[in-house]
Amino acid sequence: GKYYCSTDRISYYLPPQIQPKFTYHELVLHIASDEDANLSRLQWHEQSVEMIDGLYQIENLFGHKFLIYRKQDSRIYLGDDEPLEQRIFRLEHVRYREYRLRHHQSNKILNIYQHSLNNEAPLVTDSQTDQTFTFQYVNDSNKDYYIWPAHQPPTHRRKVLDIHNDPYGHARQNGAQVQSYDFHGGLNQRFRLHAINQNITQLANKVFQVNLCDT
């Protein structure tokens, strides 16, 4: 019979006129996917607020308690009777409208545990992991925020910082876990930032050091 070289055999199974269609189809899908992600990321940043770097206490509006750092397990909880130095955080601009939250005294960065996308993944502190967040106004009063972890895909952005509230009312209690959860807009997902004067933190640190010397 007729002898076919390797190029002939390839042409027999995959005619040349078909090959560009496969390539074009894949290219269109890839470009469309990138465009969707870039558009979603742009919309995300446009909805986010330009914040001012500095020191803050972070209050949750459900029970009007503050985020605190607990050294024993390096997690973030709610409380209102802890020493001031445990509830002061530094807001640091990183890029675009994304910000890092760092516990001021320990110098550890706040992040969602293992960058999880699961509901109830706890907010923890780490010296190595670099997590960023965006802030979105709740309403036109421009006082309160939803806080979005920025590690989630921009086309599937669902998680915000949240106070564990099961059973209902638990978010008012000291020790309630700070976590990520699907956005629903309730009070346990709304936060208010209170700016802290640097002089106050220096005084708090001095008091803390004196207390250590006394014990």
TrEMBL record:
Highest taxon in the source lineage: Eukaryota
InterPro entries: Ricin_B-like_lectins
Name the record gives this protein: Ricin B lectin domain-containing protein
